Amino acid sequence: QLQLVESGGGLVQPGGSLRLSCAASGFTLDTYAIGWFRQAPGKEREGVSCISSSGVRTNYADSVNGRFAVSRDNAKNMVYLQMNSLKPEDTAVYYCAAAAGITVQAMCSMVRGKYWGQGTQVTVSS
Fold first, then answer.
1. How far is Cα 39 from Cα 47, in angstroms, rounded to an integer?
2. pLDDT digit string, tens, across residues 25-76
3. Residue 43 β-bridge partners
4. Strand-pair partners of 23
5. Does the CA dihedral 107-112-114-119 come out positive or negative?
6. 17, 35, 51, 116: least surrounded by Cβ within 10 Å?
7. How far is 111 from 88, CA to CA, in rounded Å?
């Protein structure tokens, strides 16, 4: 069964950090671009950060640029999202998705993915 599973979410105070992980089972990630997306209550899902299959190309939403960093370890079949200087407006369910044949810019801007995880909740609150 092809599956993506996110982990690492939780409750953190403003200014804190979290690292999200995205693990794949049933397929290898090394031929897929991976995107991190989030959806807050009452809002549409939006692209946060996307990384190419090789890891060379990345894309970030303006709202997280300079605070978040995406990386991947294809040998471990894992993708990560390091989130620093978290703000209350970062509160959302975070999803990872895999897609092929698409640029990271398009993947993030159009919220595209062939395979999706179930999401992990990130809450930033004092």
1. 9
2. 888 999 999 999 999 999 999 999 999 999 999 999 999 999 999 999 999 9
3. none
4. 5, 78
5. positive
6. 17
7. 22
Task: Count CB atoms within 10 A of the CB of residue 126.
Answer: 8
Continuous segment of H or E residues that includes residue 110: helix 104-110
Coil vs helix vs strand at 75: coil
Give pLDDT tens digits for 84-93. Answer: 999 999 999 9
Q: H or E segment at 104?
A: helix 104-110
Mean pLDDT for all residues in the chain: 96
CA distance 17 to 8: 11
Length reported for the chain? 126
| Predicted pLDDT at 1 | 78
Place of tokens 């397929």: 27
pLDDT of residue 56: 97
**Structural tokens at position 28:** 């290898």
Collapsed DSSP state (helix, strand, coil) of residue 106 = helix
Query: Please, are residues 80 and 21 in contact by the beta-carbon 8 Å criterion?
Result: yes
Contact present, 93 and 48 (Cβ < 8 Å) = no
